Amino acid sequence: MRAVAGELPYRDFQFPLNVFMHVLTHEEGSVPYLHYGLFERPGEPIASAQERSTQLLFQRLPPPPAKVLDVGIGVGTTLARLAAAGYDVTGITPDEHQAHLVRATHGDHLRIEHVSFEDFAARPFDVVVFQESSQYIECNALFAKAHELTRDVIVLDEFSAEPTGTLHQLDEFLRAASAHGFEKTEEIDLSSQAAPTVDYFLERLPRYRASLSADLGLSDAQVDELIESGKRYRNLYRRGVYVYLLLRFHRR
Q: Given pLDDT bands bounded at 50, 70 and 90, which one contains residue 164?
C-alpha cells in the first residue's frame, strides 16, 4: 500500500533529495544511502553500487577507535556503521529533517549535531569525511575549518573540470586545499562508475510522476525540469566536464 504524504519521513527533505528517496523507497524497498553508487556492471543493484562507495571510504580510514567527523549524515547508515565498528564518530548536518530521521531510525546513541560545517565548534579529529557534502560548502571555508579540526580529509564528491556555476571547479578546490596547508595525497577518478547513477533515476522518474505529485506535492513542471536536469548532467559526465572523484588530503 502506498503511504499517505503525512507518513513519509523524507517528505520535507531538501529537494531533490526527497525525490530520490521517494524513488529509492518504491524501487528498492529501503534507502540505506543517498550517495551515488559505483557500478561495475550494467544492471547491478544500486544498493550494491552504493555499498562499494562506502567500502572505498572505509578502506581509507585509520583503524578504530580513531576520531571521525562525518560531514553530512544523509540517512545515517555510514554514521551508524562507523559507531558499530568502534570509531569515536560524530555526525553533523545543517538539515534538521535529516537529524530527526537519523535519530528516529538509529536511536539516540549516535552522536549527531544539527549544525553547519562552517559553524561547527573546533575540536580535534583524526579524519574528516565528506561523502557528497563538500559541494555545499565554499572551498576556502571548507579547508579553513578543516585546518582547525584535523590533519586528514577524505572527499568523495562531484566536481567540474570547467566553470559551470553549479559544482566546485576542481582546480579551485585544490588551490583552496593548498592555501590552507593541505597536500593532496590521493586522487581516483570514479566518473565512469558513478555516472550510471544518473541513468538509474532518469529511467525511473517518469513512472513515478503521479506519486511524486500526490505524495510530495511536485508539479509536472518540477518533474519535467528534474528530468531535463538529469539529461544535462548525463551529457556533462559524458563530455568529461563533470567528474566524480575520491580525494585525500593531509595537512603538512
A: confident
Backbone angles phi, psi at 74, to 5 degrees: 60, -125
Where is 211: in which H helix or E strand?
A: helix 209-216
- Look at the pTM and tell me if it is higher than 0.85: yes
Whether cis (ω within 30° of 0) applies to the bond prior to 42 is no
d(CA 102, CA 76): 5
User: Which residues, 6+ apart, have CB-to-CB distance to 137 below 8 Å?
Assistant: 116, 117, 118, 130
For the sheet with 88-93, list strands across it: 112-114, 88-93, 67-71, 127-131, 152-160, 242-251, 182-189
- Please state, in angstroms and rounded to a whole number, the distance separating the CA atoms of residues 249 and 227: 35
What's the one-letter identity of residue 19? V
Counting Cβ atoms within 10 Å, is residue 144 exposed (0-12), middle (13-18) or buried (19+)?
A: middle
